[in-house]
Amino acid sequence: MSTLSEKLRKLLSEACKDMGLTSNGIDSLCEIGVQGLTETSSDDDIKKMADSLVPFAKAMQGEITRKMSKSKPEPKPEPKPEPKPEPEPKKDPKPDPNDFAETIKGLLAPLNEKLEKLSAENEKMKAERAKAERSAQIAAKAKDLGLPDFLVRKLGIADDADIEKELTGLKQELVASNLMPKDAAQVQAEASNEMKAMAAKMADMLPDNK
After folding, report:
1. What is the pTM of this model?
2. DSSP 108-166
């Protein structure tokens, strides 16, 4: 199975195949782009990310071409009076790697800012969804136990606390303090226990049949 990075690189390479962008340039863009994706990102999400990187790829290639053209010295005109041996062609000076790195950094700065914002929004949505799910679980359990909604809303249950244990303990305290009626099942169980105890007591009072 292809990784997110491999899928993104394949899509970006296809989109930039006519630009002449180097493999290192595509890798640099992929390293930035993959930060805006997660393991749950769909193929459509990866395609959208690749499309959003294309303008930056064009800008990078344009900047590289401009710097290469600027670094080439203009040829000096040769004097015509007398034929002279043709001079050896001068080698084009190599671009400064540091200058190239700064250029890429400047081009990718807006993309980095956008990805950081998307990542923060994603984390916020995850936290809100988790909070809503836990609140729903608390409300459902409170309803099963017959606890009042207003009381549960004011009750602060820690994120790592056991919901059933906390709410069951609260109900037991309310019942013990006569602030809440007992469940029908609990009343029936207590009545059954009382009847069993009474029957046992009466049996003890009867004479032994020998």
Report:
1. 0.39
2. HHHHHHHHHHHHHHHHHHHHHHHHHHHHHHHHHHHHHHT--HHHHHH----TTS-HHHH
